[in-house]
Amino acid sequence: MDSKRYNSGRIGDAVFKGMAWFFAASVIALMALIFAVLVKESWLSINAFGLGFIWTSTWDPVALQFGALPSIWGTLVSSAIAIVIAVPISLGIAIFLTEMAPKRLKGPIGAAIELLASIPSIIYGMWGLFIFAPFLSEHVEPFLIDYLGFIPLFTGAPLGIGMLPAGFILAIMIIPFISSVSRDIFQMVPPMLKESGYGVGATRWEVIRKIVLPYTRSGVIGAVILGLGRALGETMAVTFLIGNAQEIHASLLEPATSISATLANEFTEAVEDLYLSSLVELGLILFVITFVVLALAKLLISRFSYQGGKF
Amino acid sequence: MYTHYIKRQTANYAALTISVLSAAFGIFFLFWILKDVFVFGFRAINLDFFTELPAPPGMEGGGLANAILGTLLITVLATAIGVPAGIMAGTYLSEYGRKSRMASVVRFTSDILVSAPSIVIGVFVYALLVKPLGGFSAIAGAVALAIIMLPVVVRTAEEMLKLVPDSTREAALALGAPHWKVTVHIVYRGAIRGIVTGVMLAVARVSGETAPLLFTSFNNAFWNFDMTEPTATLTVTIFNYAMGPYDDWHQKAWGAALLITAIVLLVNMISRIILRGKA
User: Fold this and answer.
1) What is the CA radius of gyration of chain A?
2) In chain B, positions 126-155, which contact chain A (CB-CB < 8 Å)?
3) B209 touches chain A (CB under 8 A)
4) Average pLDDT by consecutive 10-residue portion of chain A (311 residues)?
5) How do strand A65-66 and strand A59-60 relate by DSSP bridges?
6) Does A241 touch chain B (CB under 8 A)?
C-alpha cells in the first residue's frame, strides 16, 4: 500500500513536471510561431518588392505599389521626438523622487506616477486628439511657425496633428514608465557611496552627476531603451495624432504616419492579397526593430545588476 | 577660492531647480489628462450608458452595454487561457528550470514578448485564427489578449514563487511529500497573495488594450453572446467613436474612457494595498 502511494506520487511528479515544462516551452514556441507566421504571410510582398520595400516611399493601394519608408520613417522620428522630450523630464522626476523630495511626498508621488504608467494608451491618444491637438494648433504651433519657421522643421500650417504632436503624446506616455524604472535604479546606489561624496563636501548636484549617474549609467540607458521599445510599438496614442498621411516631410508639423498607425488604419480595409501581405510585412519589420531594441535593453540592464552585486 | 564655491553652489541650485521644474512639468501633464478624463467622462455616464445598445449613427442617446459585456467576456476568456499557462510556465522557472539554459531562454523570450508591439500580436492572431476561420470573433480577440497576458503572468508567477524560502520546500520534502504536492500545497499556498495580485494587474492591463482587438474581435453594434462572432469592446468603441464625426459619439468615447481608466486605476490601487500588507 505504501509503495502504491509512493508510485502515485512519482507519476504525479512526472505529469506535473511535464506540464510545467510544456507551458514553459510553449513560450519559446509562441515567439518562434509569431515570427514564422509573419514571415509566411508577408512572403507575397517580400517576393514582389524584395528588399527595396524598406526604402521605397510609394504607398499606393490602388496601383498595388507598396513601400515601407514613410511608415518606418514616422515610427523612428516620432519615437526619437518622444525620447528627446521624455528622457530629461523622466530623469528629473527620478532625481526629484530619490534625492530631493521630502519623505512624506516620496511615497504618494512615486505611487501616482506608477499608477499613471498603467493607464491604457488609447486614453492618451484620445485626450491628445480632443484636448491637446486644438491646444497645440491654437497656442503652440503658430508660435513655432512665427519664430522658428526659418528652420525647415517648423514650417507648414498649425494643424495640431502631425509628427510633433504624436511624438509629444508618446513622450507623455513613456514618462511615467522611464521615471519609475530609473527611480528604482537610483535607489540601488549604496548610501555609503553618496555619503562619502557629501563627506568630502560635494554639493547635491555633484553627488548626482558624479556618483549616482555614473554608477547607474547602464541601468538608466536600459530603462531609456525600454521606453524607446514602448514608443516604437505604440499604436493608439500615435494613430490619433500623427495624421495618417503616407508622406515624408522635413517639417515636424506636417501629417505623417507610422508602422503601427498604418496597420491600425488600413488592415481591415485591405482586400487584395498583396495589400494585406505588405501590411503584414510592415508588422514584421516593426517586430524585428523592437526585438533588437529590447534585446539590447535587456543586455544592458542585466549587466548593470551584475555589477551592482559586485560592489 | 570663494568664487569657485559660488560657482558650485549656483550650478547646484540651477540643476536642482531644473530637476524640480521638469518633474512638475511631467506631473502637470499627467494630471491634466486624468482631470479631463474624469470631467468629460462623468458628463457622459448615466444609467442608459450601462443598459442600452448604441443608438444608430448620428442619433442621440443609447449606451454601450454591449461593449461593456464584450470587454468582460473577452477579458474573462483571455484570463482563462493565459493565466493557467502562465502560472505553469512560471512554476517551471522557479521549481524546476531555475538556472538551466532552458529557463534562461524562457525568461529572455518572455521579457521580449512583454514589450512586443501589441498591434503585431493582433496581426499574428489575424493570420492564425481570423483568416483561416473566415471571420472576426471574440475567441480570436481573447487569444490575442491571452498572448499579451502570458509573459506578464510567467514573470510575476516566477518572482512570487521564488519568494517562498527553500527551507519550506525542504521541510515538506523531508516529510516524504512528492515534489508536485509540495509545489501545489506548500509553495502555491505561500505565494497565493502575490500571484493573485500579479494576475489582477495583468487582467487590468489587457482590459485596456485596443490594438490587438482591432483585427481580431472587431466590432458589433448589437448584443453578442456567440464567441465565434465579431464582438464590441469598450476600447475599440473608443477608437471608432473618437475618430467619428458625431458629438454624441465623442461623449460616449469619454464615458468609455472614464470607465476603463477607473477600473484600471482601482485594480492597481487594490493590488498595491495587498502587496504592501504582505511586506
Assistant:
1) 24
2) 126-128, 147, 150-151, 154
3) yes
4) 70 91 96 96 93 90 91 95 94 89 84 86 94 90 82 80 92 92 90 92 91 89 89 92 88 90 90 92 95 85 51 33
5) antiparallel
6) no
